[in-house]
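Why should sequence recovery work at all? Because a backbone constrains its sequence more than one might expect. Tight turns favour small or flexible residues, buried strands favour hydrophobic ones, and helices have their own preferences. The token representation captures these environments compactly. In the example below, the structure is given first.
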């Protein structure tokens, strides 16, 4: 009984870690899209940021990445470039949290 309840607690904790990782990645993708859309001169960059977050299978992000090829980068300031790099690293950390959480859930379920 004790081991079963310990597995449930471990699965809930790992689920929370995975959820934090997911929100972090989605938040960073939103901001990276807004920075990129602004630098490319697209109208309504915040709309594009929200659009990339939509869809269960990242279809919004794929459509944005395909559609943005028509527009070259018009004005990317040094501060925006540095912020974009920082957000990429933060998204990588979020992916790490997501992976650790999912692996933890799988291990807690199998034990």
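From this structural description, the recovered sequence reads:
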């Amino acid at each position: 009984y004790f081991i079963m309840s310990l597995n449930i607690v471990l699965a809930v904790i790992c689920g929370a870690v995975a959820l934090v990782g997911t929100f972090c990645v989605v938040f960073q993708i939103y901001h990276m899209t807004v920075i990129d859309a602004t630098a490319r001169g697209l109208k309504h960059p915040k709309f594009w940021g929200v659009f990339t977050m939509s869809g269960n299978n990242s279809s919004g992000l794929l459509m944005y990445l395909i559609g943005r090829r028509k527009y070259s980068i018009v004005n990317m300031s040094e501060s925006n470039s540095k912020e974009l790099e920082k957000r990429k690293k933060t998204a990588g950390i979020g992916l790490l949290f997501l992976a650790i959480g999912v692996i933890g859930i799988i291990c807690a379920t199998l034990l």
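A few observations help interpret the result. Residues 2-39 form the longest helix (38 residues).
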